[in-house]
């Protein structure tokens, strides 16, 4: 096992246990995996006030301060429909409900406004915006939708979106070969292989996320680079149909290896075909993207 593979697997296990050593996780700035068993967010009206307390709502908000937790709480409530479109959000009421300062409320609402979830206007106040105004490509909104009532739609839409741009990114990346990048991609495949043999799904997912993010970044298209956050978010959500790269198995690992080989050969068509095959939904679950055509 390479030194990089050993370091990543150790860091992943340390992170999972909450015992990360200094500097290890900073080397690999992966998005935090969302909690699987999330506490349901109560409706605003008629909810038990105790359930609104930040200290009792830590699930799903690990590593977040009061500001981050409030953004998480309000974001989930809006995306789930508990706070419907055009619903007024009164800062004083929010502060009392969640027992946070006006400063925390104000900054949290600004974050939600930047995501398109709320709007603030003079003489009108802050109100929830309709779904058509949301930034649906925002990683947080992707996560909130994936754990809410829209999870099936979110999963399908993510799969369809990735199937449209990741094969193109793989094709373009074949024309930007660099030894250091090639080695990094090879390392990620090695790490995934070791993680799979160890039953270490967390390390597999992190190496998988870095593999896809790096491939998009070397495609040489800055607009595609902005979509790398979508891939990271997609690889973190769970439930619903799954694509090949989200299943730690020999087939998935082999497809990643074929992509690396195609990039090394500068074969864009082969890299594109391998990526399409990797992102194709397994036949035993609902098909949400078309299978690659045989040539």
How would you describe what is shown here?
Helix 3 (about 65-80) packs across helix 6 (about 140-145) and helix 6 runs parallel beside helix 11 (about 230-235). This protein has a three-stranded antiparallel beta sheet. It is mainly alpha-helical and about 300 residues long. The chain has helices at about 5-15, 25, 65-80, 90-100, 100-115, 140-145, 150-175, 180-200, 200-215, 220-225, 230-235, 250-265, 270-280; strands spanning about 90, 120, 125-130. Mean pLDDT is about 75; it is low at about 15-65, about 240 and about 280-295. It is built from 13 helices and three strands; from the N terminus they run αααβααββαααααααα. It is elongated.
Q: Can you lay out the helices and strands and say which pair or pack?
A:
Blueprint: H1 3-17, H2 24-27, H3 66-80, E1 88-89, H4 91-98, H5 102-114, E2 118-121, E3 125-128, H6 139-146, H7 151-173, H8 179-198, H9 201-217, H10 222-225, H11 228-234, H12 250-265, H13 268-279
Antiparallel strand pairs: 1-3, 2-3
Oligomerization category of the chains in this entry: single chain
End-to-end distance, in Å?
37 Å
Q: What portion of residues belong to β-strands?
A: under 5%
Total strands: the figure is: 3
Structural class: mainly alpha
What is the residue-averaged pLDDT?
A: 76
Number of helices: 13
Q: Can you give the helix content as a percent range?
A: 40-55%
Describe the largest sheet. 3 strands, antiparallel
Which strand order does the major sheet show? 1-3-2
CA-atom Rg in angstroms: 21 Å
Shape: elongated
Query: What is the H/E string?
Result: HHHEHHEEHHHHHHHH
Low-confidence region ranges: 13-63, 238-242, 282-295
């Amino acid at each position: 096992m390479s030194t990089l593979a050993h370091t990543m697997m150790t860091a992943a296990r340390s992170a999972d246990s909450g015992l990360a050593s200094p500097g290890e996780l900073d080397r690999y700035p992966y998005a935090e995996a969302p909690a699987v068993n999330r506490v349901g967010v109560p409706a605003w009206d008629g909810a038990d006030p105790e359930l609104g307390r930040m200290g009792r709502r830590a699930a799903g908000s690990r590593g977040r301060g009061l500001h981050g937790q409030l953004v998480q709480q309000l974001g989930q409530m809006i995306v789930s429909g508990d706070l419907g479109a055009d619903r007024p959000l009164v800062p004083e009421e929010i502060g009392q409900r969640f027992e946070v300062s006006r400063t925390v409320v104000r900054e949290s609402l600004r974050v939600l406004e930047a995501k398109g979830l709320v709007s603030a206007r003079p003489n009108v106040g802050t109100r929830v915006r309709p779904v058509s105004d949301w930034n649906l490509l925002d990683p947080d909104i992707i996560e909130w939708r994936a754990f809410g009532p829209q999870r099936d739609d979110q999963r399908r839409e993510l799969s369809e979106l990735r199937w449209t741009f990741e094969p193109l990114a793989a094709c373009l990346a074949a024309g930007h070969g660099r030894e250091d990048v090639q080695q990094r991609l090879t390392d990620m495949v090695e790490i995934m292989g070791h993680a799979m043999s160890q039953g270490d799904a967390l390390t597999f997912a992190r190496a998988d996320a870095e593999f896809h993010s790096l491939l998009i970044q070397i495609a040489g298209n800055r607009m595609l680079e902005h979509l790398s956050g979508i891939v990271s978010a997609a690889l973190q959500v769970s439930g619903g149909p799954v694509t090949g790269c989200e299943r730690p198995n020999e087939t998935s690992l082999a497809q990643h290896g074929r992509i690396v080989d195609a990039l090394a050969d500068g074969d864009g068509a082969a890299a594109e075909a391998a990526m399409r095959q990797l992102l194709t939904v397994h036949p035993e679950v609902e098909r949400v993207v078309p299978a690659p055509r045989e040539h």
